[in-house]
Amino acid sequence: MGIFDNFFKKKSSGEVAKDRLKLLLVSDRSNCSPETMELIKNDIIKVISKYMEIDSEGLDIQITQNHDETEGPALYANIPIRELKK
C-alpha cells in the first residue's frame, strides 16, 4: 500500500461523521477550534510521513487541559506506524 492510498480513499458518511464528532469533542475540551485541530492533524501527518508510513485513518490527537494551573495543556498523539522509510 502506498503513502497516498489513504488520501484518495473514499470514506463512508459514517466515518466522516465519526471523524467530525471526534474533532468537535477534542476542540471542545481544549478550547481549540475544529479547523485548527484539523490543521494540526494534517501537519503531523505531513511531517511524520517523511520518515515513516503511517495509518492516517488511525491517527488520534488530543489536547488535554491539566487541572494543575502550573502546567499548560498537553498534546497527545497516537500514530499507528506501518513501516519505517529507509
Automatic annotation (TrEMBL):
UniProt keyword list: Cell cycle, Cell division
Gene3D superfamilies: Cell division topological specificity factor MinE
SUPFAM superfamilies the UniProt entry points to: Cell division protein MinE topological specificity domain (SSF55229)
GO biological process: cell division; regulation of division septum assembly
Keyword Cell cycle: yes
KW Nucleotidyltransferase (keyword) present: no
HAMAP family found in the cross-reference section: MinE (MF_00262)
NCBIfam families (UniProt xref): minE, PRK00296.1
Family recorded in the similarity comment: Belongs to the MinE family.
Function: Prevents the cell division inhibition by proteins MinC and MinD at internal division sites while permitting inhibition at polar sites. This ensures cell division at the proper site by restricting the formation of a division septum at the midpoint of the long axis of the cell.
UniProt-recorded name of the protein: Cell division topological specificity factor
Source organism (scientific name): Anaerostipes butyraticus
